[in-house]
Specification:
Blueprint: H1 3-28, H2 33-68, H3 72-84
Helix pairs in contact: 1-2
Length: 97
């Protein structure tokens, strides 16, 4: 993993961990549900940003290497499978938007 992407992912994940602890306290304290829901949405957005950093790293390293080695089709299949599990990446029929 490129050092810049590793650092970015780890920093984001550590921030998310702290944020998650705060949301857990909100639930334990029985805070107002819409306030908790807003924080959960913010956490989801933060996790999605980590996913984008990981995807960028993968494309810049593994995908480039696979293309150089003539394994383009394999990489396309892998990415299509991975993106199926990424929220917001697929349309209502499961096709990539």
């Amino acid at each position: 993993m490129k050092e810049e992407h590793k650092r970015s992912a780890l920093n984001r994940l550590k921030t998310i961990r702290g944020h998650l602890d705060g949301v857990i306290r909100m639930v334990e304290d029985e805070r107002y549900c819409p306030d908790i829901m807003k924080q959960v949405s913010a956490l989801q957005g933060s996790l999605e940003k980590v996913n984008r950093v990981l995807l960028q790293n993968h494309v810049e390293t593994c995908v480039v290497r696979a293309v150089d080695e003539g394994r383009s089709e394999e990489m396309v299949d892998e990415l299509m499978t991975t993106l199926r599990y990424t929220p917001g990446a697929t349309g209502p029929r499961g096709d990539i938007q």
